[in-house]
TrEMBL record:
Residues 165-224 form a coiled coil. This is Cyclin B1 interacting protein 1, E3 ubiquitin protein ligase. The lineage of its organism: Eukaryota, Metazoa, Chordata, Craniata, Vertebrata. GO terms for molecular function: ubiquitin protein ligase activity. It comes from Nothobranchius pienaari. One of its GO terms (biological process) is reciprocal meiotic recombination.
Amino acid sequence: MKDCTSAKFLPWDFRSKPAPAANTKITPNPARLFTNFYLRATESPLAARHRFLNMSVCDDALLCNYPKCRAKLSGFAWATACSHVFCDQHGSGAFSRSPAICPACSSTLSGKLDIIRTELSPSEEYKAMVLAGLRPDIVMDISTRALAFWSYQVYQERLYQEYSLSRADSQLKQMEKVLTQHNQSRELELTAMRGEIASLKKVMEEYKRKYSDVSERLMERNRQYQKLQGLYDSLRLRNMVVGAGERETQPQPGYQDVNPVMAKQPAPQRSPQFLSMGTDRDGHFFSGLEADGLNNFFQFNSPAKEKVRPFINKR
């Protein structure tokens, strides 16, 4: 690819020289072209590529050479002797001062015919009369110079698009490099996170194993506790039964006091009345006893008060 920085917006007078060939490299004045080339180079690569796709060598529309404009020309345009063309808006503003300076290459345009305002789509009457009366060689010379102007514009546009494409490719490579680095960093982070997840899974498995062991031990302890609780309940019930049986078999303290008293009483002189009373013998079972002795015999207290006072009031 050619160095487009050395062939941007060249101050070439198409009126005195033929148009350069497509493969001819034109030597510019770097000091004069650097500023304008920088302004053109700052255009967005995507916009430049879009215009490049929409414009071909055989396209019938030129682009404004004013920095950051590059609008498709229509209607009227301003052409200069340095082979640049501008839209009507920027041409009117740039060439209203004296002396006129080309906005593209900063060339001084002091000649009478260095700047012309031309109609891009002239009428049929104008085309029929503009070259009328001129010799064929003059007509051919005028046509050659006009074609040279057009060829130069196409050549400059090609260089500009090549430069824009090169810059877009450079930016794309830079973005790919940044994206690759970003992806690598993300891959490293992902690898680290996967390792951390694996270690956490191992720890979780270890805790699960410990939990299972503790659960089994707890279940075994519960079974032992239930077994011991059952043994304790059975022993407590057996002790309660044995204690109740011992209390029933032991003589009560009140009966120990009654026996001496009863022993001192005289034997009855006659047979008890209940032997001849039939069905009423239950109600008169103790009728032969003395009233005082009967009352004393049935004066029982609650078991809780046995230790406080005796069953029978001693005389």
